[in-house]
Amino acid sequence: MPSPPEGNPSRHVAFAAVAIGTFMSTLDASVVNIALPTLARDFGADLGQVEWVVLSYLLALSALLLNAGRLVDVIGQRRVYTTGLLVFGIASGACALSGSVIPLVIARVVQGVGGAMMNAAGPAILTAAYPPAQRGRVLGLVGLAVSAGLAAGPAVGGFIIGALSWHWIFLPNVPISFVAAFVASRAVPAAALSKERFDVAGSILLGLFLTALMLLLTQVHVWGVWSAKSGALLALSLGLLIAFLIVEKRVRAPVIDLGLFRNRLFTGSAAAGFLVFVTLGAVNLVMPFYLTRALGLSTTEMGLVLTSLPVVLAVVSPFSGWLSDRLHSTRGIASTGAILAAVVLVLLRFAVHDAVADAVTVAALLGGLGLAIGTFQSPNNSAVMGSVRAERLGTAGGLLASMRVTGLLVGNAVGGAAFLAASGGSTAPAAAAKGLALSSLVGAATGLLAATASLARGPSAARPST
Hints:
The chain folds into three domains: 9-186, Growth Hormone, Chain: A; 199-252; 256-461, Up-down Bundle (Growth Hormone, Chain: A), CATH 1.20.1250. The chain is 80% helix and 0% strand. It contains 16 helices and no strands. It has helices at 9-43, 47-50, 52-75, 77-97, 101-129, 132-163, 173-187, 200-223, 228-250, 264-284, 287-293, 299-327, 331-352, 359-386, 393-423, 429-456. The longest helix has 35 residues, at 9-43. The two termini are 36 Å apart. It is found in: Cell membrane.
């Protein structure tokens, strides 16, 4: 497996701080999912209440990623990243001390604030620290940290909850966050404050728009696509988006520099990244229903099958980043990954049709999807981060993370709707097979769209200097 590039030791220390923060935040997200039944029992709450322990973090994270990215550009990478680590650590302690659902949800919102700052600043720190010839490799290694956190979450969470209690899934974050913040404060260079002002009005409107949009995407399966609640929230989201765009055109230093989207490389790569995560989201939410209803797997067996995707992704991401640096090709490798994702999901559609697939086949195909996403992600991230000026690295980093989260949620909503339409709401094995088959085709279609966007965006170039 590729190792961190040689060079200035301080940049490697900065890499370690970013990797630790990335692993911690993704591990925390995946660990909480497995704790939900325990939380419901301990708090005497139903699933509809405790699911907000997950949703509150996700909503805060997604709503603030772009704002956090802009903050990086205004006050500097070190200030935002170290503050994010400290906020995340303090909120983790508050989570561990919570005695009911409401305080835990509030603490998770604060965790999301810290997570947004960390996720937006991390790619900017590494892009600034390492030369373009090593960018893909370094971002790929961070992808390994993401995948490792996702893969380890269920196993680590199950062990901790079984051996100790759910409180301990949060407590380790406290010392880790403070140590990582100290390391980052020493390794990441301080930046002078930008002369540009932070766009408060635009920031508020953007946060409200993304909150409304994410809430719609997470609740549409509960309310129904054509319900009054869904329609009202959609109208509110569109109104907030229009207001945000009007404000952004009138301010001198907007939250999002809309001029970035005139850059074909930036726009195409960002669109491809969004669509690839729609592809992944189309099947990752509904896959557990197929595994339990059609194949009758236990929770432990299901966890083993699902782990194949992040494990393969963790292995492939650093290598694809290294290969893109070596071959000086981000477009070709990323596009190959997107096409491979579409092919794998077409194969999955035929494998699960009428519930004929066994667990080994499904695990192998999920591993293939991990191979595809890993092949795509590192080169594409490198293209996005390399296409902007140094003073816009925070915005680019925030956009990368935002596209990932939003893409997954859109994929979950679309894939879930396809699953329900094909299965007819039945829990029979054949119905689950038909549901996953249609969700897989939806994912394959968006994978082809991602490949088209990646191919159309043009070859990578040196980062603009002005």
